[in-house]
Amino acid sequence: MIKKMFYSILCTAVLCGCSAEYLQPVSGVCFESEVLPIFVSNCTQSGCHNSIDREEGYDLTAYEQIVRKGIVPGDFRASEVYNVLLEPLGEERMPPAPNRMLSATDIQTIALWIEEGARNTTCEPADCSTAAVSFAQDIQPIMASWCNGCHSTGAPSAGVVTSTYTGMKTIADNGSLAGTVAHEQGYPPMPDNGGQLSACEIALIRQWVADGAPNN
Question: Which residue range or ranges hold the Cytochrome c domain (predicted)?
Fold first, then answer.
């Protein structure tokens, strides 16, 4: 509900130039679990804003690099990293075509994080139960946050699809899903260019695989 309220305020601020004071009562975005996955999944592919290529001088793989350029803590409208996400066309659009634009929810999350001060916050859930792991409720949201930016249908990186159950079932059954997200020896660590899933997220994935990777 808080984020829905902020999104309404955000749209008004963008269209009408409202003062940022209307955003101050809203809070609650976690950098590690909500913001970093958006950048890693959508912006750090080969040739883009990773620690090797650093396109346009941007490295969006970790907190220290993300806040170094294009972020004005406390003012999302003055932040270049936010503004390029709104460009529908042209060279300034990020992610560039033919990649899909970020969802309204992702853009909203980044804007709110910046407005709150662009802090390096870590927020492990108080309770991480693996008693009844659901593909729809637990696994799909993790993939949407961390993986689908590179591994969606169409032209998925390395031919791996994480945006569908069929694709997930394949990598669950061959062992690569659990191995890559846990950065186990013998598997390429994923996400590829920065960040790692939380201990809770890895535990949920391991349990889902151990349960037979059901479509539940």
Answer: 126-213
